[in-house]
Amino acid sequence: MKTLSHYLNGQLTTGQNQRYAPVYNPATGEQSAQVALASADETRDAVRIADEAFVTWSKTSPLKRSRILFKFKALVEEHTDELARLISSEHGKVFSDAKGEVTRGLEVVEFACGIPHLQKGEHSMNVGSGVDSYSMMQPLGVCAGISPFNFPAMVPMWMFPIALACGNTFVMKPSEKDPSTPLRLAELLSEAGLPDGVFNVLNGDKEAVDVLLTDECVQAVSFVGSTSIAEYIYATASAHGKRVQALGGAKNHMVIMPDADLDQAVGALMGAAYGSAGERCMAISVAVPVGEETANRLREKLVAELDKLTVGPGLVDGPDNDMGPLITREHRDKVAGYIQSGVDEGAELVVDGRQITIDGAGDGYFIGGTLFDHVTPDMRIHSEEIFGPVLAMARVASFDDAVSMINAHEYGNGTAIFTRDGDAARQYCEQIQVGMVGVNVPIPVPMAFHSFGGWKRSLFGPLHMHGPDGVRFYTRMKTITQRWPSGIREETNHFTMPTM
Where is the Aldehyde dehydrogenase domain (predicted)? Predict the structure, then answer.
């Protein structure tokens, strides 16, 4: 059995804890490896390694840091297919989707390569007579990242490229369900010239996480995952004096107005609801058609498209499937439980993905595309994040009803409206209480030079991921006010507040 461990101080290391978690191929249900789970002591050792490396790395010029990231970018591009195969084999998403994930992560690396400009600070001359002020954006120290299973390449690359570019060192704690991709990224960083100890990958569970949240050397924690864990991460790390960005769950709605291009909306919904088997925090999981005629036409078109949806392994000889398996047997069963909950609470199950069979898939963790209609806000399939290929249709009578329903939800991660009416789109963007909004764009994930983050219980902490907020998160502002006296030094004591 292959054993995956940690990447510390520039090399793969063997775990000493003798605790392991299984790693499965979701397409077959077979165990492909085991991953070592770090102990509290091993985690503290990883933090110390990063802390020692910070002394030198923080003094490395931004230009040199940028050049290492440029080399890393080139290496990731060279190894994109390899990384995508690792993602598909452990997560289950189809190969083309896995390549897209690597590309979106690379966009953050490209943004971080501009750190000589992004970290310049500000300067003002003569704020007083002969007095100048300027600011410096200095690195924090050791930063930690805790990432989820659904994007083993992209989400870590939301975090560490900017942190490293700003002069911090990093301890990455990826999901133990698909750990191979972050380990490979660490090797490529070393190949690009990153000094030993600057970036470390530590595999583990809550025992390791709790050390990262409380160790005095860790200055900042970035997290993406469920809301319950995000809230715990934020509360615990903040209580120990760390700055935190913790991205939680989501329930993303797409409003379809009567004037929308319905073919365009249906095509967008299929990809946004069922791509990556719905295991995306930005997946559209609720379609909100305005008016009965819009709803009936939307349902008819969705059923026809679902009949053509191809579901199967993420890695195949020939054209990709549209959708792969879920990550684990437990998660598949949880999603199946949500489908049954929808039936029990009175929603109309239009297409039941539990009935799917995949030839040659063994015990793979598959659920087909599922569609509910006549879903109401009091149902669990509307109120809770399912994280699977389940789309709920929640019919409303008016634009105002759609806005009210979405604003009443506890999550505020992403949303979209499909319409030809500029006034409706403008009102929606102004009134909706959601952090990321798409107009005729189903998954409004910002590009890397903007920042990613939701509202309400989808985000804990004031700063979003990557973009300008990412640079602010991974730096600490220091402002210097200086004057160089000319002529004879004054000997008079000054006891008043200095003014112009």
Answer: 16-480
pLDDT band per the 50, 70, 90 thresholds, residue 491: low
Phi first, then psi: give them for residue 321, nearest 5 degrees.
-70, 165
Cα–Cα distance list, 32 to 29, 94, 147, 183, 348 (Å): 9, 18, 21, 16, 39
User: To which H or E segment does residue 48 belong?
Assistant: helix 40-57
From residue 277, alpha-carbon distances to 133, 177, 338, 350, 367 in Å are: 53, 16, 15, 18, 8
Identify the bridge partners of residue 13 per DSSP, sorted by sequence position. Answer: 6
Tokens of 494: 């000054």
Is the distance from CB of 391 to CB of 302 less than 8 angstroms?
Answer: yes
Q: Which residues, listed in sequence order, are joined to residue 218 by a DSSP beta bridge?
A: 142
Structure tokens at 220: 């900042």
The set of catalytic residues is 281
pLDDT, one tens digit per residue, over 291-342 is 999 999 999 999 999 999 999 999 999 999 999 999 999 999 999 999 999 9
For helices 292-306 and 262-274, the axis angle rounded to 10 degrees is 60
Q: What share of the chain is helix, strand, coil (3-state, %, to 5)?
A: 40, 25, 40
